[in-house]
């Protein structure tokens, strides 16, 4: 692409907006590639149109996504909607669950679950962009996608940590069923969609000009929405038009430099926004909820890929301790979190606090195999007045009562994310707030 006649400032601005817009798309592809495309990867779920269930709670070895939870073991699936819709069937449920389906940019197209659709059995149609076929009988609801490839990170509540609890959970997960629409109604399958020439995932493509090449390929599965037309047209003018033919090597040196500077500007905008984000409000949701707030969607994808919207689960955490240290560091201090009796998290379903090491945002190996703590944790010791004090530190507390309330931390920086499933209105309107992460004396 020649730089003659191009406004290089406009190129930089488009590249910056393109990075903010496209980063969730590539983060999603990073996961989709390992799970649905690369059959040599241990995380491979079996391709498109299949569930892979994980009845065990998350552990430090689980690195598919950042900030994994171990409250609700996962059920992964990916669907290709190009040839025909799919039908998702669920059993009658005795517990909390949610199957949230997301578009390529991680925006949710809808939810099947205890909060959204109830706990009765049902069949749900997942239809691709522009599908206008006849609705079959017996369908409880329709979820309409804006992209031709979608995914789902399902969660199902694990009632306890015994082998029997895990067996019961596995039985429920195995009743989640995926069928193409033709199989559901008993007709001949339509012609299969062609197999794409999937670009191999390389980590270096998450930042540089290779980012734009992968984004160009993926936008071929993302029809231009009216609300995104302006940005999509400006990206197309730079060669990122959804044809998968963007070639960084063919760029004029001036254009190449302007694109690189713009991408760096976009990354910096997101880092600034992440530093200010302390809760999940406005970061996850449907397209109606998020609109075209690309920055919020990008921050959500970076801080907690596939996080749930606040009406499903509220997320909050500490980016600094009470002494102003950012991030908290258990190598130099011990910490406490004290909930007054009237300040315990208000949840319709349940709540938990999960600790992650930084910068990876992954679970931490520890001698008691405890990765989260919350209202389901057996043996918690409440204060005489009904309050609750948690002890967040690297070394084992000497007091046995404190061990019962110990959330083990790494010998270094960390963060703690609180999840409230089915949050009370007081949580959503800000009336209820998290207490401080109170820092003890500096041991250094």
From TrEMBL:
DUF1254 domain residues: 49-180
Alphabetized SUPFAM superfamilies for the sequence: VPA0735-like
Pfam families registered for this protein in UniProt: DUF1214, DUF1254
| Domain of life (superkingdom) | Bacteria
Q: Where is the DUF1214 domain?
A: 320-424
Q: Which parts of the chain span the membrane according to its record?
A: none
Q: Which InterPro entries match?
A: DUF1214 (IPR010621), DUF1214_C_sf (IPR037049), DUF1254 (IPR010679), DUF1254_sf (IPR037050)
Name it. Answer: DUF1254 domain-containing protein
Which taxonomic lineage does the organism of this UniProt entry have? Answer: Bacteria, Bacillati, Actinomycetota, Actinomycetes, Kitasatosporales
């Amino acid at each position: 692409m020649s730089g003659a006649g191009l406004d290089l400032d406009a190129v930089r601005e488009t590249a910056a907006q393109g990075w903010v817009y496209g980063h969730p798309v590539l983060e999603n592809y990073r996961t989709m590639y390992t799970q649905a495309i690369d059959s040599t990867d241990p995380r491979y779920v079996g391709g498109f149109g299949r569930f892979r269930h994980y009845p065990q709670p998350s552990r430090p070895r689980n690195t598919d996504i950042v900030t994994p939870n171990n409250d609700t073991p996962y059920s992964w699936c990916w669907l290709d909607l190009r040839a025909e819709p799919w039908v998702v069937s669920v059993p009658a449920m005795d517990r909390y669950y949610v199957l949230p389906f997301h578009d390529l940019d991680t925006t949710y197209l809808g939810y099947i679950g205890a909060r959204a659709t109830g706990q009765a059995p049902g069949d749900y149609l997942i239809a691709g962009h522009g599908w206008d076929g006849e609705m079959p009988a017996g369908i409880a609801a329709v979820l309409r996608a804006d992209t031709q490839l979608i995914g789902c990170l399902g969660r199902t509540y694990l009632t306890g940590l015994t082998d029997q609890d895990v067996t019961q959970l596995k039985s429920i997960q195995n009743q989640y069923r995926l069928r193409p629409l033709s199989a559901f109604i008993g007709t001949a399958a339509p012609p299969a969609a062609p197999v794409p020439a999937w670009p191999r995932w390389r980590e270096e493509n998450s930042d540089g000009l290779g980012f734009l090449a992968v984004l160009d390929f993926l936008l071929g599965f993302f029809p231009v929405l009216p609300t995104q037309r302006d940005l999509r047209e400006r990206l197309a003018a730079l060669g990122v038009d959804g044809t998968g033919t963007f070639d960084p090597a063919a760029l004029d040196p001036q254009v190449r430099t302007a694109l690189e500077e713009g991408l760096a500007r976009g990354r910096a905008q997101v880092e600034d926004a992440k530093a200010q984000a302390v809760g999940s409000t406005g970061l996850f949701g449907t397209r109606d909820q998020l609109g075209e707030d690309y920055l919020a969607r990008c921050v959500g994808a970076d801080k907690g890929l596939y996080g749930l919207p606040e009406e499903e689960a509220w997320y909050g955490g500490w980016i600094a301790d009470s002494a102003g240290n950012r991030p908290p560091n258990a190598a130099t201090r011990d910490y406490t979190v004290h909930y007054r009796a009237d300040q315990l998290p208000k949840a319709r379903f349940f709540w938990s606090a999960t600790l992650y090491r930084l910068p990876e945002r992954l679970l931490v190996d520890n001698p008691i195999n405890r990765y989260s703590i919350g209202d389901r944790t057996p043996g918690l010791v409440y204060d005489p007045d009904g309050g609750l004090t948690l002890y967040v530190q690297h070394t084992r507390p000497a007091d046995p009562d404190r061990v019962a309330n110990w959330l083990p931390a790494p010998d270094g920086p960390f963060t703690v994310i609180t999840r409230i499933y089915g949050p009370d209105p007081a949580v959503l309107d800000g009336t209820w707030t998290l207490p401080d992460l109170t820092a003890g004396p500096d041991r250094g």
